[in-house]
Specification:
Shape: elongated
Oligomer: single chain
Number of strands: 4
Structural class: alpha+beta
Radius of gyration: 28 Å
Largest sheet: 4 strands, antiparallel
Number of helices: 8
Helix content: 55-70%
Strand order of the largest sheet: 1-2-3-4
Order of helices and strands: HHHHHEEEEHHH
Length: about 270
């Protein structure tokens, strides 16, 4: 018995040492200086310059130019196609996509600029590589509240997937939003549980009438008695969906942890 305990203790000790080594490797891989890393052919300074030039172009754009782009955003798809067929005759599909990306960016900029005061300076620039995505964030300092310009690239071909501008929330605002989301989630879950309880309670009260539940699957059988065969099948579907979402969530969480150990894992994400 004592020998078995020693073997078990040694196994746990070895597993602990392996885990510590993996953590150290992960921290080492994440410790590279981002300003010296090659981002699939682009340097840190090139990516930073792109963000800075975008901010300056948005800041210096005239109201007349902005209105043209904002008009495109407000059009229906048919109206937009007809307008671009005349205003940008001969433009390729990729060029039209670029025009619409610029229009959406300007719309984000105008929305984010509300109530932030005058422009002061450019702030911190951050590059983040995660799997197949490269994200560049440029902080923009205004009088009342900073903004953040975000470029999202497909890392394998460095094509732009999205460009956004948003206001940076304070810690208090983030906590408030998180609290509201938590309360909403708890409220919905509570209401669903109450309805489920009442539904099953209604079936249980019929047990006095001689109704019996299937001992092999009483939970699902309660739905069958309460809502017929359709309710029985629906209960099975709900349980199946719950199991699938749990598996997907666990897999996603596991991959999120594993990809931090080494860049090679993140590449195969």
């Amino acid at each position: 018995m004592q020998q078995n305990r020693k073997v078990t203790f040694m196994k746990k000790k070895i597993l602990l040492m392996i885990s510590m080594c993996l953590i150290v490797l992960g921290l080492t891989a994440c410790g590279a200086d981002p300003t010296t890393v090659d981002y699939n052919g682009y340097s840190y300074d090139q990516l930073k310059s792109t963000c800075e030039n975008t901010v300056m172009a948005l800041k210096d754009m005239s109201d007349q130019e902005k209105q043209i782009y904002l008009m495109l955003v407000g059009m229906s798809e048919v109206e937009r196609k007809n307008y671009l067929a005349t205003a940008a005759a001969g433009a390729t599909e990729s060029q039209i996509e670029e025009i619409m990306r610029q229009a959406n960016l300007i719309a984000h900029w105008e929305e984010a600029r509300k109530g932030v005061g005058e422009f002061k300076e450019l702030g911190e620039f951050v590059v983040t590589k995660s799997g197949k995505t490269l994200t560049c964030e440029q902080k923009i300092i205004f009088e009342s509240r900073p903004l953040i310009l975000t470029y999202v690239y497909n890392y394998h071909n460095m094509e732009v997937n999205d460009i956004t501008v948003d206001q940076i929330q304070t810690l208090g605002e983030k906590m408030t939003n998180a609290g509201l989301n938590t309360l909403m989630g708890m409220g919905i879950a509570t209401i669903v549980r109450i309805f489920l309880f009442l539904a099953v309670l209604g079936v249980v009260t019929r047990l006095a009438e001689g109704v019996t539940l299937d001992a092999g699957n009483p939970a699902a059988d309660a739905f069958r008695l309460g809502a017929g065969e359709l309710g029985y099948r629906f209960a099975g579907l709900v349980l199946l969906c719950a199991a699938i979402t749990s598996i997907i969530g666990a897999a996603y969480t596991s991959v999120s942890f594993l990809k931090t150990f080494h860049p090679a894992i993140a590449e195969k994400e």
